[in-house]
Amino acid sequence: MRHLNVFNHLYIFYSFVFLLNVIHVFWSHPVLYSIIGILGIIMMMINFPRSDRVFKILGGILLAAGTFFFLSSDVSAGSIPSFFAGNIGLLFLLSMLPWMNSVVKAGRYNKLLQSLLGGNVKDMGSLYVRSEVTMVSLAAFLNLSSATISQDLLKTQLNKVKTKVKNNFIVMSTLRGYSLALLWSPLEILLATSIFITGANYLEVLPWMLLIALLGFLVDAGIGKMLFRKHDVGNLASEAENREVNKKKLMQFIIALVLFLFVVVFLANVVQFDFLFAVTIAIFPFALTWAVLMKRKKSFLKIGWPAWKRQTNHLNNFVVLLLSLSFLTETLNASPYLQILQDPIVALEGHPLLIMLFIQAAFLGMTVLGVHPLATMGIFGGVSELLMGALPTVTLTVLLASSAIATVPSAPYGLIVTITSVGLRMNPYEIVLKNLPYSLLCGFLGILVALLTLEIY
């Protein structure tokens, strides 16, 4: 019983680590960063035995690969703790997500979203299109929270559908819709990083990214509608609520999401916080304020407190994956093998189409192997002058951003895939195989649009 109680109070230890991470944002000191890394290693030791078998295997592979890269580098052993600190901020974000979901439930907006996802749909094919549209709308504002909200609603709504069909539906509609929103959202870190590398103007890039998103939606929605049209949705719980009440509630929801966007943009662009940190620290105060204005504070805390503790206590799979991935990424950047990955770019100079195809293949291949798209973006950032000599700035930005974001639904260790994997109890690589055709399609659309910009710029 005592053993069980310790795990029920892990949220206290994790909160302390997250607090140190917040302090590090304001007081960046290498000793503090190493302490956070040491605590990260302790988190790994606690959670490795508790994680699911597939995550133990994947985490072990990442740690083994990271060890290989470390041994090939000239970095001292004293740097190892800091290699485990890089993704603590992502764990902090994951810990805070239940608060946003809780205010949605406290305000009973989940029922409104259910009406948006359901309503008068003939079959699962029609629901697929509606689900993707809803995800595109929500993900632009709520980011990762949109995935948990939409997936929870769809799991409930499709509870009478066969598990395999239901899981395939959720995996495809939510992850693909999520990535379509990231293509144009100014809040997306991959898009922001590509603009930072090239120095492009966001307003020049935006129309082309919207074109990729529109083409991607039209093609994937058509495919999804055909694949699932033969499956019946079942009896949807469609309450005959007053249409005016629904419209009013929908308007309140949209206003709240726009205000949250403004808060995050203010923190990221004016206060100059890192994007992920800005989202993380904005979630609770914004959700609490929203609950107070709705006069749902008591309900919000009643739902949110146990949900937050439960989520934080059960970060075991995320801890194993994200911290081992942090170790791999840091050791790869310190390894001489990084240069080997950059050499092919030099060899393809003067062949724009081949460069585009190589960049897309590199992003997809590295992502499937477990390297975060941001790390791959960093590799291309190292040869950015060479790339900008071969391609116009807008073309290169569109190419980097679309190639990176196309891999999001197929990244076995990415946050959105990991969240979905845990929620649906699926192997991450099952999700990868389902979404790999979409990632290839989205990547090729990015290349086509990049070729179009090549003619203009």
TrEMBL record:
Origin: domain of life: Bacteria
UniProt KW keywords: Membrane, Transmembrane, Transmembrane helix
UniProt keyword Transmembrane helix, yes or no: yes
Transmembrane segments: 6-23, 30-48, 54-71, 83-100, 175-199, 205-228, 249-269, 275-294, 315-333, 353-374, 386-416, 436-454
Protein name: Uncharacterized protein
Species of provenance: Halobacillus seohaensis
